[in-house]
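User: Structure please.
Assistant: Input sequence and predicted structure:
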Amino acid sequence: MDTGSHYNYENKIIVFKKETRPSQRFEIYKKYGLAVDKNFRRLKIVVCRAKRPEVFSLLSEEPWIESVEEDVSVNIQVIPESVKVYSLRGQEIPWGVQKLKAPECWQSFSGEEIRVGVIDTGVDANHPDLKDNVKELTGTYKKNLISDDNGHGSHVSGTIAALNNDIGVVGVAPKAKIISVKAFDKNGSGQLSGILEAIDWCISSRVDVINMSFGIPNDSNALKRTIQEAYDNGIVLVAAAGNTGKKDGVLFPAKYEEVIAVTACDRRGTFAPFSSQGKEVDFIAPGVDVLSCYNDGGYVLMSGTSMACPHVSGACALILSKKRLKPSEVKEVLARTARSLGYSKEKQGAGFIDVKRALTLID
């Protein structure tokens, strides 16, 4: 793989048609003088650079190529000014975890053996409330960087699976396994190519759920194909609807049909004004002043659809620890047992999750 410095132009993502053979793809690289940085073989997608930038406009004319895309920036969905340090004595069950009725399920089901892929800013693997549940760590942002230098990934992981251990907080599924993929830098910014790599890695690692507390405003063939592949592999996909505060403002990947899109509410059940709305919304979940883990062993309150998303991922882990359902079946059982908060479908989807009711519906 050539990554020589003589290729100074921006990376582009090439999506080949699914029927292309490796020899045909290699012919394209050779013909146009492309340097391949990342090759997602199962997806027929590559990230590459060219000696001459005008080459990319010619590529889209090739019959074997579906699209050529920019490697756009992707951002986590937290409200930056919402972060507040919180000091705990003993253990506290966060309000959101209680409202989902998760504690009422733990005696029978608490996410045992369920692997949740968290594509985020990394995780504090030494956090006393997380360390026993963090099972795998990798990074697509920088290969040698896997720990959380932002705090967001640790917060999301805590909502999903903080330990029930008499300290700090408890997650929705306190025995689920966290599979952490760091795809974002310390400012919560990443690249689409890193997201593709993270999802591809999660498929290979056989995760059961992927939590995606991030989003982009525009559609992407590469992202859609990668999401479809994960879904076809039986992975439950959950994403933040976004913090645009706009109607028809749901971000990708939440906007895809294969993904469970989550908006945010506060502890009174009031729709969070920052939350994106749209016909693609599936559920509403706790996303205002959510208490969870932070890097360096700490705890903070945070707000955003980033915080609502892992409540639903944790609920999916609880369901899967009772019965291994298909992604569509998980979504259906949650929808049939959700309760309305009195908002339109564009704001709340099927409503607020009641994981206890959902579990009673599963044989």
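Residues 1-8 have pLDDT under 50 and may be disordered.
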